[in-house]
Amino acid sequence: MSPSVSSPFVGALKTLKRPDLFIADAFVAGQWVSPTSTFPVYEPSTGQVLGSVANMTRDDFVTAIKSADKGYRAYSTSTTAHERSALLRKWYDLIMQNKEDIATILVLENGKTYAEAVGEVAYAASFVSWFSEEASRAYGDVIPSSMPNTTVMTMKQPVGVCGIITPWNFPAAMITRKIAPALAVGCSVVIKPPSETPYTAAALVKLAVEAGLPADVIQLLPTKDREAATEICTSPIVKKVSFTGSTKVGIHLSKLAMGTMKKVSMELGGNAPFIVFEDANIDLAVQGAMVCKFRCSGQTCVCANRIFVQKSVAKEFTAKLVAEVEKLKVGYGLDKETTQGPLVNRNGVEKVKQHIEDALAKGARLETGGGVPKDVDPSGFFILPSVLSGVTTDMMVASDETFGPLAPIFEFETEEEAISMANNTEFGLAGYFFSTNIGRCLRVASALECGLVGVNTGKISAAESPFGGVKQSGVGREGSMYGLAEYYVIKAVTIGNTNA
Ligand SMILES: *[C@@H]1O[C@H](CO)[C@@H](O)[C@H](O)[C@H]1NC(C)=O
Ligand SMILES: *[C@@H]1O[C@H](CO)[C@@H](O)[C@H](O)[C@H]1NC(C)=O
Ligand SMILES: *[C@@H]1O[C@H](CO)[C@@H](O)[C@H](O)[C@H]1NC(C)=O
């Protein structure tokens, strides 16, 4: 992309097979509504305004929540699990049929490459198909009773209206991972999409309604007004809040939600360790680091944030990683050669720069990257993928999530030291390590304080696998059979005097 090209995204929007999937409106009480107040959404590779999206108010949230309550009562009582399963399957089919359009919209607002966006849409759809299958499997139990002539059984019932607050790094997948299980068990949802990436959310909602979901069961309210969105956490009608975002905001929202004892799922910040032991297959480790550090330009909560390499293999690992990083082609996400898009906003770029400057000032070495790539729009939110060596625990990168394409390499001597450094953080989402020793693999997998561990792989997220953190990385699990449990409550039914 040449810097002189203005608004490359205008042409991209013309390529949509279904232009009606590019929606700036909110979806409230079964209607697409366009209020007069809007906020701008930026296209990250040029920094230009992509469009103006509905800026919903607290009153709008109140209306939506009331409508979702009505929707929930009808939907939960009038559909069978089998019907909800079929509905989700239809939604899955529509998402896959419109995969290219959704991916294009996703690139335009998020910046990631088209290949990554198509991958994300398929990943997002995989949650819909997974939970369409799980919808029919919300089995209860029959429990042998301690009392004579008595039967105890459990029913799994939908929790009710769910408030869903999603992040911009996976504009499609973070929505489906939350709402597919909610809809599977019979809940209704009120979604506050991220203000950076509301368009992907709107496309998904439109397709859900097309699939036959009763319109008031799903509500979508973009807003720039954080206070208005907290209605989701304070309204007594809402029974469950699921949030993905920073630990700071997650704690704030949890406190609000506890005011009315809502069920909560919080998928919060990470500071993932990535450990390379001397007995590792180094090429595999480099591949793993590329996947989990540079995917989505380093903007995922399971990205390796701290890379610990055993001293004897540090030189080899660093050289091989640098060689791979230098092959990355930074640019506009819709250009075919691009393998690394811009960051989502200017703040993201500033944070990476700050982490690099701090590390260099404290003695780290810049192995590659560091600046802004040459052949991109200077108004875009670009930064070169970077590798630092000689990193120590007093540097900002050790304790603060970079959320950008920066790989800081620490060295260690012993397994104990590596585990202790890895665990030395208040976060506990993902952790990765590479070793060919089976004993060590089991030992370290068990010792790492995180909710997700990747052993000899950098790829750990899938619909069938429970996703979530420990420590300040949050509570609850998404995906898998455990992800369904977040959206139902267990009722114990005791039937006595069965002999009477
Ligand atoms: C969005 O609406 C809120 C009121 O709900 C207002 O305070 C804020 O300034 C608006 N933002 C924009 C960008 O218009
Ligand atoms: C259940 O009730 C019947 C009839 O009253 C009685 O004979 C039986 O012992 C009871 N069962 C148990 C496990 O106490
Ligand atoms: C993780 O490391 C910390 C710091 O060394 C240590 O206190 C903790 O016991 C370790 N956790 C496990 C499960 O080994």
Automatic annotation (TrEMBL):
<feature type="active site">
    <location>
        <position position="267"/>
    </location>
</feature>
<dbReference type="InterPro" id="IPR016162">
    <property type="entry name" value="Ald_DH_N"/>
</dbReference>
<dbReference type="InterPro" id="IPR050740">
    <property type="entry name" value="Aldehyde_DH_Superfamily"/>
</dbReference>
<dbReference type="InterPro" id="IPR015590">
    <property type="entry name" value="Aldehyde_DH_dom"/>
</dbReference>
<dbReference type="InterPro" id="IPR016160">
    <property type="entry name" value="Ald_DH_CS_CYS"/>
</dbReference>
<dbReference type="InterPro" id="IPR016163">
    <property type="entry name" value="Ald_DH_C"/>
</dbReference>
<keyword id="KW-0560">Oxidoreductase</keyword>
<dbReference type="InterPro" id="IPR016161">
    <property type="entry name" value="Ald_DH/histidinol_DH"/>
</dbReference>
<dbReference type="InterPro" id="IPR029510">
    <property type="entry name" value="Ald_DH_CS_GLU"/>
</dbReference>
<protein>
    <recommendedName>
        <fullName>Succinate-semialdehyde dehydrogenase, mitochondrial</fullName>
        <ecNumber>1.2.1.24</ecNumber>
    </recommendedName>
</protein>
<dbReference type="Pfam" id="PF00171">
    <property type="entry name" value="Aldedh"/>
</dbReference>
<feature type="domain" description="Aldehyde dehydrogenase">
    <location>
        <begin position="32"/>
        <end position="493"/>
    </location>
</feature>
<comment type="similarity">
    <text>Belongs to the aldehyde dehydrogenase family.</text>
</comment>
